[in-house]
TrEMBL record:
This is Protein sorting system archaetidylserine decarboxylase. It comes from the Archaea. Keywords: Cell membrane, Decarboxylase, Lipid biosynthesis, Lipid metabolism, Lyase, Membrane, Phospholipid biosynthesis, Phospholipid metabolism, Pyruvate, Transmembrane, Transmembrane helix, Zymogen. It holds the Pfam family PS_Dcarbxylase. GO terms for molecular function: carboxy-lyase activity. The chain crosses the membrane at residues 12-43. It comes from Halalkalicoccus tibetensis. InterPro entries: PS_Dcarbxylase, PSD-A.
């Protein structure tokens, strides 16, 4: 099992505290060990197998909102505490910008989260936005301007719960969507929208 970047900054202090805690109380020491194990679970980074074509979900979680912004569609994915928090590229693309936006730390499932801290990863015709939540105090992008990415390649990690949005290319309309509000999605594997790839899927399948 792989783990997301930065996991040992959280796990090592918990394990170091566990040893003296065991001297004071076996229960207290056990709590530190459990906390370390939970942190490892939270930072897990499993491999994913993307579909041959299409735009995939950038995050594990539940589709919390689908809305129109001008001539574009935004799909929002809320990540619960038990979801994998590694964020992935929705399609093959070149990173054109990585921008940090300061903000608060309101619960990611509320409308107030629009004012939370964010990191925008912009591509030629789409954008992924990593949004901090009430407990998510650290967003770690893995990419920088000019990086060439494949579909489902890792682009960042958010520590301890949050939300990820994907702003779809302008040519994608509601008939192209393959998810709906309330649906569970898997980063890098669940197809959020087709992008004229129906024939490609048919040819690939034989």
């Amino acid at each position: 099992m792989k783990f997301a970047s930065g996991v040992w900054w959280y796990v090592v202090p918990l394990l170091l505290l566990a040893f003296p805690a065991f001297v004071v109380s076996p229960t207290l020491g056990g709590l530190f060990v459990v906390a370390a194990a939970f942190t490892l679970f939270f930072f897990r980074d499993p491999e994913r197998t993307p579909p041959f074509a299409g735009i995939v979900s950038p995050a594990d979680g539940t589709v919390s909102e689908i809305r129109t912004e001008g001539d574009r569609i935004r799909v929002c994915v809320f990540m619960n505490v038990h979801d994998v928090h590694v964020v992935r590229a929705p399609d093959d693309a070149i990173v054109e910008r990585v921008e940090h936006e300061s903000g608060g730390y309101r619960p990611a499932f509320t409308k107030e989260s629009e004012r939370n801290e964010k990191v925008h990863v912009g591509f030629e015709d789409s954008e992924v936005t990593l949004i901090a939540g009430s407990f998510a105090r650290r967003i770690t992008p893995y990419v920088e301007e000019g990086d060439e990415l494949g579909r489902a390649e890792r682009i960042g990690h958010i520590a301890f719960g949050s939300r990820v949005d994907v702003l779809l290319p302008p040519e994608i309309g509601y008939p192209d969507l393959e998810v709906e509000r309330g649906e569970k999605v898997t980063a890098g594997e669940t197809k959020v929208a087709s992008n004229g790839d129906a024939n490609a899927d048919w040819e690939w399948g034989g």
